[in-house]
TrEMBL record, chain A:
Pfam families: DnaJ. The chain crosses the membrane at residues 14-35, 90-107, 215-236. Residues 612-660 have a biased composition (Acidic residues). Keywords: Membrane, Transmembrane, Transmembrane helix. It comes from the Eukaryota. The lineage of its organism: Eukaryota, Fungi, Dikarya, Ascomycota, Saccharomycotina. This is J domain-containing protein. One of its GO terms (cellular component) is translocon complex. InterPro entries: C2_domain_sf, DnaJ_domain, DnaJ_domain_CS, Ig_E-set, J_dom_sf. The keyword Transmembrane helix applies.
From TrEMBL, chain B:
This is Uncharacterized protein. The gene is TPHA0F02760. One of its GO terms (cellular component) is translocon complex. GO terms for molecular function: protein transmembrane transporter activity. Transmembrane segments: none annotated. Gene3D superfamilies: Tetratricopeptide repeat domain (1.25.40.10).
Length: 660, 199
């Protein structure tokens, strides 16, 4: 239907339009923000803080030992997050200013007031309320008509006044009629006017200068055309190209293809060292996107300088920080690719390299001690006396530790010991394969790995799994856990930030879990990252130098948190019964030392004998016969349905037999 | 790749032009040149144009005699001599044998000699060499509980307790009934706990 609209000439409607548009966006936004400010929603960080009081220790120390240049670098990237919030607040403020301006415009605009006057409201004219009875209406009308009736008007009035008075009287009588005469009242209710439908004018809430002003109209059309023909295609193309050039692991496709190429051309005779992995990393496309003028050799030099804690030129420091911070994603990608190639050695070498980058310590037998702050490297290597681990270090008393590490300042030694005793070590208490809802692993079933892990500090005395009563090491057997064995993971808090004063970004500690077969020493599935673990145990005083024996007096299993971690197994159990051996490697991404490596045995047995099953099927078929109309939805049951087809036939023949 | 190859007409060997810096040449190119040269040498010595993968008897005899001298030295308790002779025998079988001789026989020979060599290396305390040779043997698909036992032992001597446990466990999962490996695993675990100060 062709129709021409009247544009908003006198700015009567568009301010309202804008006002509602603004308010529909602003009000929810403001409410959200207020809720956030006053709110009881605790962020993940606070939750972690509540569970792990140790967070503050490592965090404070991390802040203390971080170089000021790294702090400024971190701030540069952290600020972007804070800016988002302040930008949101700014938007809200600007929005509310706009609203007040609009209200001002509406209030001061005369034509709006005039058009509001122009509407016909019989109640207002007669000075009665909607709830007034007919009697009251009549009374009001009589009073007013006495006052304004043309015959009763003062003769001294001028012609003009007389006319307006008559006009008012017409209005009054119209209003009276609209409220009393049923026909006119219906008109009024339907069309808003006692005389029936008035002529309709269609208008649009856009101001007319947008369309009628010759310059403005051109600008509007130009803006539209450029947006549609240039802006939109350009943006979509950019987005598409960008998403296409990154893999699911968030590394550039060229980097991924380089890694795959390395993997294919990798000779098993080649020895995997940190240097080799670093040289692979330095060929990443990401680095070249950041700094197109530098070469792979430059990146390799900078990464090695970082690992060896060598000073680099001030101009190159930001470059170094940036590429070092990027290494995490790249290593994750490399590990995933190595897992795809089923190569255990490369995957673990890549993870070891990341430790070196994280702690800025080269890989050697001393690295577990050298990752601690304030250690005098040369002094320690000379006087190490067979101490290569943090655990061994804590067999000495504090003074002796200071002597071995070459720390004479007591304050510094205290910090070093605090870091050493807050590094989370893992102890395996129990590891088994489980099938949801079954006692044993049956041929062809889909098991998962269930681990019970005790997070402990190297300072603490070893607690063997026998010290914990059976019930602490058992899983819940309720329906929810059987349905989704991995759901309990979400209740475990995130890990805290790790102590890594040389790493340019802040990172939470995590562990990467690689699972392989012992038969051929190859990985069988993608790596699983464990980033939820409670570090509560690290606060427990349980010094191995003070406790000679664990007894009921000093050991209370209630005080120890046991992490129950379930890891999905990427493949079903073998189809023949027998024993399969798996190798599980859990590597810390942050510290030297707390790695776990163990063998798991999977005893696969045949399902229970077949006869039992037949009985079950017969039961099922009976059920089916009795209630076939019942909607059966779950998959398992529909499978049973297929089987019961046979029994259906059987029972049919039986029925026939019976009939015969 | 550039084609700066030089052919020596006297020795019939090819080599890379020395004017190019060695850093530009990839490992793969070097390996390929070496392989081609080896093939050339073997073909020059071979009179039969339709050669077969039959191993050369002469060479086998020589290698065997050298190996036996090594074993004799071993019996006389001359460890250094024995290691030298067996290494020589291994090197000869690696160098002098033509690449087209039967792989099955070459491999068996090599594995047999390497096992002896590893034993001597372990006696002499050359643990790193022993581990390298053991890796070589394991990578050629030879899985034997004795090999895992020796590898664990070598790692223990090198104080690489984590690797020792890892290898011992792998050996145990391939040969679950082996009593020696069980004892070894217990010992490795005990030493690892001591290394971590957990005892």
């Amino acid at each position: 239907m062709p129709q021409s609209y009247d544009y908003d000439e006198g700015s009567e409607t568009w301010p309202f339009f804008m006002l509602t548009l603004l308010l529909t966006v602003l009000i929810p936004m403001t409410l959200m923000q207020i809720w956030k400010l006053t709110g009881k929603t605790e962020t993940e960080d606070e939750k972690v803080l509540k569970v792990n009081n140790s967070k503050s220790v490592m965090n404070k120390l991390d802040d203390k030992y971080t170089d000021s240049s790294i702090v400024t670098f971190r701030d540069k990237y952290n600020n972007s997050i804070n800016n988002v919030f302040s930008a949101k607040n700014g938007l809200i403020i600007v929005g509310w200013i706009c609203v007040s301006v609009l209200i001002q415009i509406i209030n001061s605009n005369e034509s709006i007031a005039k058009s509001a006057m122009g509407t016909f409201d019989p109640y207002e004219i007669l000075g009665v309320t909607v709830s007034s009875t007919e009697k009251e209406i009549k009374k009001a009308y009589r009073n007013l008509s006495l006052k304004f009736h043309p015959d009763k008007l003062d003769r001294n009035l001028s012609e003009k006044e007389r006319l307006s008075m008559e006009e008012i009287f017409v209005q009054i009588s119209k209003a009276y009629e609209a409220l009393t005469n049923p026909a006119t009242k219906e008109n009024y209710l339907l069309y808003g006017h006692p005389d029936g439908p008035q002529s309709q004018i269609h208008g649009i809430a856009l101001p007319s200068f947008l369309v009628n002003g010759s310059l403005m109209a051109k600008i509007v059309i130009f803006a539209y055309v450029s947006l549609l023909s240039i802006g939109l295609p350009y943006l979509v193309r950019n987005w598409w190209v960008k998403t296409r050039s990154y893999t699911k692991n968030n590394i550039h496709v060229e980097t991924a293809s380089y890694f795959v190429d390395r993997m294919i051309n990798y000779k098993p005779s080649e020895i995997l060292t940190v240097k080799l992995i670093v040289s692979w990393l330095s060929h990443s496309k990401e680095f070249r996107i950041y700094y197109p003028t530098l070469t792979a050799a430059d990146f390799e030099r900078l990464l090695l300088a970082h690992i060896n804690r060598e000073k680099v030129d001030k101009s190159e420091r930001d470059i170094q920080y940036r590429i070092v911070a990027k290494c995490h994603t790249l290593i994750n990608g490399l590990v995933a690719i190595a897992c795809g190639f089923r190569n255990m050695d490369i995957a673990s070498a890549a993870l070891d390299t990341f430790k070196c980058i994280m702690q800025a310590v080269p890989d050697s037998k001393y690295s577990e001690i050298l990752q601690l702050p304030n250690v005098n490297k040369d002094h320690f290597i000379e006087n190490s006396e067979d101490i290569f681990t943090v655990g061994k270090l804590f067999t000495l008393d504090d003074k002796k530790i200071g002597k071995v590490l070459g720390i004479s300042d007591e304050e510094l030694l205290k910090d070093t010991l605090a870091v050493a005793s807050n590094i989370p070590f893992l102890r395996l208490l129990k590891a088994e394969f489980k099938v949801p809802g079954e006692k044993n692993v049956i041929t062809g079933s889909i098991p998962y790995i269930s681990l019970k892990i005790l997070v402990h500090s190297a300072r603490q005395k070893v607690i063997s799994e026998k010290k914990f009563p059976e019930k602490y090491l058992e899983d819940d057997e309720d329906f929810e856990t059987i349905k989704d064995p991995y759901s309990n993971l979400q209740t475990i808090p995130l890990t805290t930030y790790s102590f890594s004063p040389y790493f340019p970004a802040k990172r939470r500690s995590d562990w990467v879990c690689l699972i392989g077969l012992q038969k051929d020493n190859k990985i069988i599935q993608t790596p699983v990252t464990i980033d939820r673990l409670s570090f509560k145990n690290l606060n427990n005083e349980f010094d191995k130098r003070l406790i000679t024996e664990i007894n009921d007096k000093n050991f209370n299993p209630e005080e120890w948190d046991i992490a129950k971690i379930n890891i999905p197994l990427g493949q079903p159990a073998p189809n023949e019964k027998g024993t399969a051996f798996f190798k599980v490697v859990i590597k810390s991404a942050d510290y030297f030392g707390p790695d776990l490596e163990f063998t798991m045995k999977m005893d696969v047995i045949d399902p229970p004998p077949f006869e039992e099953k037949e009985e079950i099927y017969e039961d099922d078929s009976e059920d089916n016969e009795s209630g076939e109309s019942d909607g059966e939805e779950s998959e398992e049951e529909s499978e049973d349905d297929n089987d019961s087809d046979y029994t259906d036939i059987d029972t049919d023949t039986e029925d026939e037999d019976e009939d015969n | 790749m550039s084609t700066d190859l030089v052919y020596n007409t006297n020795s019939k060997q090819i080599s890379l032009d020395e004017s190019i810096g060695t850093s530009d040449i990839s490992d793969a190119t070097n390996t390929n040149i070496r392989q081609i040269n080896k093939l050339t040498t073997a073909i020059i010595a071979e009179s039969n144009p339709n050669f077969t993968p039959q191993p050369s008897d002469n060479l086998s005899k020589m290698i065997k005699s050298m190996f036996e001298t090594g074993i004799k030295n071993l019996k006389q308790n001359k460890m250094q001599e024995a290691l030298k002779n067996i290494s020589l025998a291994l090197e000869m079988s690696q160098r002098k044998r033509a690449p087209y001789e039967a792989f099955q026989i070459q491999l068996q020979d090599m594995q047999f000699m390497l096992r002896q060599k590893i034993d001597i290396e372990l006696i002499l305390g050359k643990n790193l060499d022993a581990i390298q040779d053991l890796d070589m043997l394991l990578n050629t698909g030879m899985l034997d509980p004795e090999l895992f036992l020796r590898k664990t032992d070598a790692y223990l001597k090198l104080k690489q307790y984590k690797l020792a446990i890892s290898d011992c466990e792998r050996g145990l999962s391939l040969f679950p009934a082996n009593p020696k490996l069980r004892v070894m695993l217990l010992e490795a675990k005990r030493r690892f706990a001591d290394y971590n100060g957990d005892i």
